[in-house]
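LAB NOTEBOOK - FOLDING QUEUE
OPERATOR: T.R.
BATCH SIZE: 2
PURPOSE: Compare the predicted structure-token outputs for two unrelated chains run back to back under identical settings.
PRIORITY: normal
REVIEWER: second-year student, initials M.K.

ITEM 1
FIELD SEQUENCE / FIELD STRUCTURE:
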Amino acid sequence: MSEEGFLRRWSRLKSTGGEAEPARPAPAPAPASVPVAVPEPVAARPESVATRSAPLPTMDDVARLTPDADFSAFVAKGVDKSVQRLALKKLFTDPHFNAIDGLDMYMNDYNKAAPLPPGMLASLKHAPGVLSRLFEEQPEHPEAAVARELAAEQAAEQATEPATGQAPPSTQQGNA
């Protein structure tokens, strides 16, 4: 496998227009008489010059952090995980990160219906007439509804009265 890594190879091929470089011949094996250096384990390797010059941050450094401070030292390799977590927690307490995104469509609670303002309710007064026209019913005025109910009551009374025009028997007994 190539030692340059996937992203470097991809970048190189992208910049050259996709023309692959011819495969490099494998290096010749070293003669057996020469001792081969065994690489040291990662943990046993000495720290790089950059990390030796600056000590790793501690909890005291986290306490002195401000929102404008440089947090890159706290996320570097070798920093204690609890120090990293505390530094990031302090970073995200900044109100800048608490701003609500106006494009967040689902941030509201849609379980509670908002009351309709009076202006909107007034504009909906025309709805019964529109709906009755949609369903081909004639809108009825309140006076017409009362007149219809009275006519229904009178029809019911006339159906119970005898055809002779005399008062019902219950009223005749009360007069005698």
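ITEM 2
FIELD SEQUENCE / FIELD STRUCTURE:
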Amino acid sequence: MNAVNNTTALEEDKLLQFFDWHIAEERQKKMRHCLYRDLAITAAVIFLLFKIIAGIAIVRGDSMEPTLTDGSLVLFYRLGHTYKRNDIVIFRSGNGNLLIKRVVGITGDKIEIDDKTGTLLVNGTSPKELAKGKTYTRDSGIKYPFTVPENCVFVLGDNREAALDSRSLGAIETNNLLGKVFFEVRILGGST
């Protein structure tokens, strides 16, 4: 009788171990499915965030110093389509390079550059700026005073003597702007 009880107890133990193993296996499968689902959702959110809402760019060159430094990462907001003076914007030049510049004039603004003093005037006044260097005209065919056309902005680099900007490129159409820079991550030592 004792041997029968031991055999039954062993069979029950094996049966319990089988069910425990099966339950653990099912839990692992469920956890894997949850992990895969969470990874897919996270990937979709990151894709939407950086393809539709925001973007990342690397600052190349010193045309925006002292505000933005060479080699830094910037985040820009893609969904804002109204631009105002002092916004830092990102756009593609005619040759496809990304450029980052400051909006100094919007539709209807009158831009004047005094080549004797290197002074920028917007609507007859000198804006408060973080500009480095003097602002001089460029041989680009732009005649000053220049009125910013409809749906355009006039952009300048903060390092005026090193910047490729509206003095050479002309006014930039707002539908060509990729977005507004809202955050910079400075990389120590800059780029090589």
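REVIEWER COMMENT (ITEM 2): The domain at 59-185 is CATH 2.10.109.10 (Umud Fragment, subunit A).
FOLLOW-UP: none requested
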